[in-house]
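ESCALATION

Customer reports they have been waiting on this structure for their group meeting. Please prioritize. Original submission:
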Amino acid sequence: MMKNALITSLLLSLSGMVLADLPEPPDPRMIAQMSVEERIERGKFIRAELSKATPEQRKAFRDKFREKLQSMSPQERKALNEQMHAQWKTMSKEQQEQIRAGRRQMIESLTPEEKAEIKHHREQEFQKMTPEERQKWRDDMHHHPSKK
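Update from on-call: job pushed to the front of the queue and completed.
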């Protein structure tokens, strides 16, 4: 009995070590400098690693990524956002769909609690936007510019 408990304890600690080895969240500036193919591959790698993690570890990963974004000045974040949007427009439809599919896959793999936490965070961010930023976000998300 003691031997089984020791083996179980060892296996649990080893599995915890595997989960603890999540990659460091990428620097947003580094992501923007990657080619489309590199970003797609990096996204696949990160999603595969996150799928092995616990909800708490995924939350810690998301929080660290948000910290990296928040460490940038508002001007840097805006310039990075504009750069990423410009790159998006130059991607082929297939590349755009690959990225969308990866995002959908990631969201679908989350627990209901994680989905609710992400939704709540996005709603908070949405409330901080100016009316013009909100409209631009809606237009970008729904792929059609509003009529002016």
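Sent to customer with the following note: Residues 2-19, 144-148 have pLDDT under 50 and may be disordered.
Escalation resolved.
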